[in-house]
Amino acid sequence: MINVGKQIIGFETSADAREMISSINTSTGEKMASFSVATITEVDRAVEKATAAFQIYRKISGVRKAEFLEAIADEIIGIEDELITICCAESGLPKGRIEGERGRTVGQLKLFADLLKEGSWLDARIETANSERVPLPKPDIRSMQMPFGPVLVFGASNFPLAFSVAGGDTASALAAGCCVVVKAHPAHLATSSLIGKAINKAAISTEMPDGVFSLLFGDGPVLGGLLVKHPDIKAVAFTGSFGAGKAIYDMAVRRETPIPVYAEMGSTNPVFILPQALLEKSQSLANGFSGSVTLGIGQFCTNPGMLIYESADAAPGFIQKLEEEFRQTSGGVMLTGDIYKSYTAGVEKRSGMSGVETLAKGNYTANLNVASPILFKIKSDLLKIHPDLSEELFGPSSVIVEANSKKDIIEIAKNLSGHLTATVHGTDSDLVEYKDLLDILEQKVGRLLINGFPTGVEVCSAMVHGGPFPATTDQKTTSVGTAAIDRFTRPVCYQNMPDKLLPDELKNENPLSIWRLVNGNLNKEVIK
Amino acid sequence: MINVGKQIIGFETSADAREMISSINTSTGEKMASFSVATITEVDRAVEKATAAFQIYRKISGVRKAEFLEAIADEIIGIEDELITICCAESGLPKGRIEGERGRTVGQLKLFADLLKEGSWLDARIETANSERVPLPKPDIRSMQMPFGPVLVFGASNFPLAFSVAGGDTASALAAGCCVVVKAHPAHLATSSLIGKAINKAAISTEMPDGVFSLLFGDGPVLGGLLVKHPDIKAVAFTGSFGAGKAIYDMAVRRETPIPVYAEMGSTNPVFILPQALLEKSQSLANGFSGSVTLGIGQFCTNPGMLIYESADAAPGFIQKLEEEFRQTSGGVMLTGDIYKSYTAGVEKRSGMSGVETLAKGNYTANLNVASPILFKIKSDLLKIHPDLSEELFGPSSVIVEANSKKDIIEIAKNLSGHLTATVHGTDSDLVEYKDLLDILEQKVGRLLINGFPTGVEVCSAMVHGGPFPATTDQKTTSVGTAAIDRFTRPVCYQNMPDKLLPDELKNENPLSIWRLVNGNLNKEVIK
Fold first, then answer.
1. Contact predicate B201/B75, CB 8 Å
2. What pTM did the predictor assign?
3. Residue B430: domain span
4. Which of A23, B101, B149, B222 could form a disulfide with B161 if both were Cys (CB 3.0 to 4.6 A apart)?
5. pLDDT (tens digit, 9 = 90+) per residue, B329-352?
6. Are strands A180-183 and B7-9 parallel, antiparallel or unpaired?
């Protein structure tokens, strides 16, 4: 139990303010600890330190940065049970889930460490000089990716480890060579503090510069606003609601010097069930879908909030199985009281809408902040009158949409806004027949799944956890997987730079043995 | 001589409006032709056609898109002398320059064609499934780049061929698989019309869809505003002034669905002369710099608008040579009357500022729109009082800044905003001694040149013609070179997609024999 949690500002801690915010046990409502709210001076100090540290950190080799990331992973493992206990209490999530998430967090850090050790991610491009070329000689041009500078990361509520203080955004920004200032999410302040201390221990033990990492506590809009508008913050990463993400984006693009905002704002992740699959797999579909909607109390960005099927002979049987399966699901404690309130209000609103049928409810106990799973059913026409039914309702709920025909299905797909994922269940012949549906969906999402469920995001080199607006504010990026590192770098080119002054990645000798595009050809060769 | 120039809307032409704008011979002020102004209906029609055509064009193979780009190049060459004559008259630029620019334009189109034929640019990434993995099986995940949709390109005044209707932005957007709507620059309407027709001929002969390309004429803010705000426009490319570029950016980020704006807004491109170089190369530096400032009447984004040197024994000799060399330079007709007016006003303002010395003037004849080259000299302290002296003045002018010490040089560098380029002239020992200057400059620019001049931008795979704001609105991109194609695509991933439904780039067989990142390893292998 912490008495007063302090800001972590580089290698110092600080608690200037008398104003406090509390860490709350979401299952009991009990206060677990108090945290001092960051003052303007503390914010400035954190960014100032990050800016100074960046001049050192950006020059540190990939191998040494990898050691830092690996040390963070080790330090997190080293916190042992205290981390699990506190994180479960703050988030309401069960032990198994938090242990799994710790594994994922550590795995992500190691994945980026491996990427740095291999080194080719920097996209080195070399065009050698040709003094004989007419009419003008060709200069020597060499380019590679370089980090931006201090990056602001907002901790996310729904992944208190994997997308919070040492989560994917922090790991990828540190890997890119940026210093990081994290705004702790109020839903898990004590967890954040533990992880922040672990990062700092790792920074000290691997001799990283003071200021490579800071962690600040405070009110979202106030502290977030100060940081987003700070002239020395060069980019922002955020995972959370559309409202908060869009507000951050709007602030950032209105700065005197606009900065990129990588906001992953969730989506409805529509699931389409094609006719043959409906006929052949109705039991496993009903089971799999119910599980995906209620997994983690529905608190995933990739939670399937909409299922679309075509009315057919097989449909009533499928709907009945869905009802039966969904009645077996269970609710649970939500991440925060606010999330619970907002879920309940959304459910209440939908329940009261004309044309919206309550198809099934899951089990739950009427305890503090415990969400009850609920499945709604509508006819597709209602989407035209109430397009908000296709918007995300964060929690264990989904809307089953009955379409009249293939044409209707295609119309629904065409009218979709940007989503993180879309899923299609179909037999081989379904998929061929509905190729036009796939063609539309791939233009609406970051990830198109066949015969699966969108929850569960593989952390790998090919993952795209992103998508067109409003799923994210930058459809060119992913926040999961190795490509997430690209968000924090920009290309720089050197013209006629003497070899010895070039970064190692671009030297003739190719001392790091990385892949490079040399005069248009990809190779690992030494340049003579 | 055209009577009334018409909008090119896919394969149709149209001139609904009575309102006209004129093509002007910038040297004589004579009207060369009238062009009908695009109506709202015509704008909608062009975007509607682009949107429909996109559904076909995005599926066309890289090899066939390459044929289209090569056909555009051939059609441009086929216009022969008419293009050169009209372009010279509208732009005031000499024949040799326009011929060279035509070569560059054609070369760019062919460079992108080659990129498409090779095919690896799509960044294919494949992670194969592993059903044995615990605790959860690994799905099959495959990702690649996909085009956005219709792209709006603003023709630039200063490269009436290479950065206008069929210039780098159009070539890279078409190569990416996007359909393009160009807003013709009012400075060269007849040139634009000729090129637009050439593109359409190429589209027809290579059987591209109607709507893959359109060209509209009209008033900048009105027509530009309609297009930027059009909900079906998915990205914008622009080269021009900070004012216009920033206005476009502000509109685009305030849309209901924000879209990316790639605005290259020019910069001052500071040139630093280090002490030994000043001593050893003063004659060639004076000559080279004077040439770079006045090349193309100073109408380049990379024109060096500031030269910084350290006061030393050798300095007065250098300044004297600079004076002598600059007096040999010549002015010429500027691209438009407005550009001339704005240059003249800027020169007048600087001439009248206390502390600003007029070091030298070039030759010119007092004809219509003819700019006079002028070199100003200031002490570095004045930059603190008048930071606008470090802003771009578009035309054949530059500011010579005398610094007091190395410390002063470093301070100036630290205070720089984002620029397209920075240049350092130094001997080997200078460069070692001023390594900290290079470290600062690489963080301020897209391209760092050693012992050269920034004018002349090599079109190649390693070029970065971009840089931090305010040089551009997206420092992650380049508008010159093959990497410019990346501006118009986003990654999409497929999870467990049947092989036969995958794009060729991601199929097991690797039918296009492209480089792919397979389970983290780069290779061209077939997946078994």
1. yes
2. 0.97
3. 271-450
4. B101
5. 999 999 999 999 999 999 999 999
6. unpaired
